[in-house]
Amino acid sequence: MPSVSIIIPCFNEQITICKLLEAIYAQTFPRLDLEVVVADGMSTDGTRAEIAAFIDSHPGLHIAVVDNLKRHIPAGLNSALKETRGEIIIRLDAHSMPYPDYVERCVADLEAGLGDNVGGVWEILPGADTWLGRSIAVAAAHPLGVGDAFYRHAGKPALVDTVPFGAFKRELLALVGFFDETLLSNEDYEFNARIRKTGGKVWLDPSIRSVYFARGSLPGLAKQYFRYGFWKWRMLQRYPDTLRWRQALRHCSCSASSGWRSPGSSWACFGSCWPRRSSSMPWH
After folding, report:
1. Per the CB 3.0–4.6 Å rule, which of 17, 31, 110, 211 could disulfide with 97?
2. What is the residue-wise DSSP string for 199-257?
């Protein structure tokens, strides 16, 4: 049985962090072969106290917390990676709850050679128990709202461009390197682009499932999408061959309709049109 390390970047996740840790504790994968490393972006709420209390009440699961002094997601992921010991790495998010067999299925797909990085499908739930929160969750999960983000609505296994919360063997890092800290978002997509450029495979398996809590307010959603759009476009400038016609069409049509011409305006518009995975860092 290979050893597994789960890495989690977080910031001010007092409300959700224990839900995630409980879901990890309930995994069907043997706990003795499992460790969790949380990279905290110097949270100012009770996140660390919640983690400490969980550790005290769940001694059978090894959990470590490291400081993410740079306070952005790629740096947090890399800080956590440097503390891991597992043969397999699984990246999770503080807004997520993996199904009980999540780790077991990720390991099985990797051991079967189906992909160099494997992941699954989100089930998006409201981030707030309000009409608006529920509406945002419905829109975020609908194919018309997510475009070619197959991990939000895929029904069958397939080779894809990217997956959220990927699982990969540690040896992959020697080939493609760590997460790119010059991109403050879209780090997963960029990481997967490097995998594919080296001839590797990114595999999506719908039987690998996790719950994800969407943003609960429109200001929070707008801020999230703006940031993803800005860094998505910066990433695509580095990897123009990964640009799909649907992405380009959204960017061009949005910029044209708004009348904006400056690069900053284009990125802002692109951000409002580009839905993607959420994370948990200070600029949310």
Report:
1. 211
2. T--EEEEEEEEEEEEPPSSHHHHHHHHHHHHHHHHHHHHH-GGG--HHHHHHHHHHHHH
In sign, the C-alpha dihedral spanning 133, 134, 137, 142 is negative
Cβ atoms of 103 and 27 closer than 8 Å: yes
Q: How many CB atoms lie within 10 A of CB 87?
A: 16
d(CA 253, CA 137): 25
Query: Residue 223: what pLDDT?
Result: 55
What's this model's pTM, rounded to 2 decimal places? 0.73
137-163 burial: b if 16+ Cβ within 10 Å, else e: beebbeeeebbebbbbbbeebeebebb
**Which ranges of the chain would DSSP assign to H, the alpha helix?**
17-25, 47-57, 73-81, 102-111, 131-141, 143-146, 172-176, 187-197, 218-238, 245-258, 263-273
Predicted pLDDT of residue 43: 97
**pLDDT digit string, tens, across residues 146-182:** 444 544 455 799 999 999 889 999 999 999 999 999 8
Q: Distance of CA 8 to CAs 20, 107, 126, 187, Å?
A: 10, 18, 21, 14
What is the C-alpha R_g of the chain?
18
Q: Position 144: which residue type? A: L
